[in-house]
Design brief:
- The protein is of the alpha+beta class.
- It has a domain of 57 residues.
- Strand 2 and strand 3 form a beta hairpin.
- It is flat and about 50 Å long.
Length: 101
Amino acid sequence: MNSKYKNAPIKSYVNNSFGITQKQEAKFQKYAGKNYTGIDLQINPELKPSDYPVKPFTEIGSLRIGNNEMVITKAEAERIIDTLNDALLTVEKKYRLNIFN
């Protein structure tokens, strides 16, 4: 992972995607998509006790999806979560209502 926090003394990842074998990666990619095993977030190692409670503009970490990586704030993380939840609901509703392009 080519991360902003790559020189951090302690690296803390949410999904620990670096720990999967190539065999496991191939299996996951087959049923879940090519980026499935490449989705992870490295927690910002520079967070301090004074950063809590975490404010909307606080950088919470570095989000990686496949070969793309970006540092995100708490507010951006919440927006990503909301957007993806809405997308999943919309896809399900289209199916249930039989609305296809």
